[in-house]
Task: inverse folding
């Protein structure tokens, strides 16, 4: 009884299975969290362990998420829930069947599970293979956003970069792409170049927001993502999971090649993105 009332870390625990990998669950919790009436940022420790604050009436509940990957398409989710100000009372109430604290906790997590299952219908990640990235000269715009704002950055700069290149008769040499420079999960921050492959010439337009560079070929893991570009980082997690399971050292700097213009709309499941995770170069 002493352990239950004073030492037990959580007031209530909810477990369920999810047919996806931990990274997708983590990103979905972040997205669901932003739909709540009041919210604080999800505190990241790893894609398999993070915490969330839920504001319930006058109380603040701490949701501690633990995710265990069972296999490629199944994870076990355990959520330990605690009200730090009313923990003792909640533990006493839980002894009695279906108190308000239990009901509210279950209702929220059922809502999340529905949110997650709806999200899983909206994208697809194909098989993973070893491949090589491309080499090209390109015109780029540097951006720094939260990961979920990556697509907004692309959409804002798609017409800007395209129009400047078109007006100056710069010849394009392939579909646009994103080169990730830094992916900081702890700070929930993403730095990247949005680029157009071009034919190099002597009369490239000068603009303070545009830089020119060459991308060099690298060995990489590759997959195909179909879905909205907002959530294309789901493919990043699949590639990283594959690399970890097969002991393949990689650089956590994805490259995405886009074959559809998001400003044109259409069926998002028909949008195609090639996603690469470069392998770490070994000293020989």
Result:
């Amino acid at each position: 009884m002493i352990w239950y009332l004073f030492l037990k870390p959580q007031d209530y625990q909810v477990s369920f299975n999810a047919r996806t990998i931990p990274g997708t669950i983590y990103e979905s919790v972040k997205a669901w969290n932003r739909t709540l009436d009041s919210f604080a940022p999800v505190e990241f420790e790893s894609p398999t362990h993070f915490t969330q604050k839920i504001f319930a009436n006058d109380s603040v509940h701490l949701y501690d998420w633990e995710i265990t990957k069972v296999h490629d398409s199944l994870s076990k989710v355990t959520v330990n829930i605690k009200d730090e100000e009313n923990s003792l009372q909640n533990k006493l109430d839980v002894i009695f069947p279906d108190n308000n604290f239990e009901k509210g906790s279950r209702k929220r997590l059922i809502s999340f599970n529905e949110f997650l299952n709806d999200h899983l219908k909206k994208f697809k990640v194909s098989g993973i293979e070893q491949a090589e990235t491309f080499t090209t000269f390109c015109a780029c715009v540097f951006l720094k956003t939260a990961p979920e704002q990556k697509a907004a950055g692309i959409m804002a700069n798609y017409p800007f970069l395209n129009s400047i290149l078109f007006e100056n008769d710069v010849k394009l040499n392939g579909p646009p792409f994103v080169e990730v420079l830094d992916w900081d999960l702890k700070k929930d921050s993403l730095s990247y170049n949005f680029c157009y492959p071009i034919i190099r010439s002597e009369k490239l337009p000068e603009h303070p927001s545009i830089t020119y560079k060459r991308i060099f070929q690298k060995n990489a893991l590759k997959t195909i993502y179909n879905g909205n570009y907002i959530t294309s980082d789901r493919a990043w997690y699949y590639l990283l999971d594959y690399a970890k399971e097969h002991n393949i050292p990689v650089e956590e700097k994805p490259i995405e090649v886009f074959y559809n213009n998001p400003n044109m709309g259409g069926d998002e499941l028909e949008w195609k993105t090639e996603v690469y995770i470069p392998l770490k170069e070994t000293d020989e």
In short: Residues 79 and 91 are 16 Å apart (CA to CA). Confidence is low (pLDDT under 50) at residues 1-8.
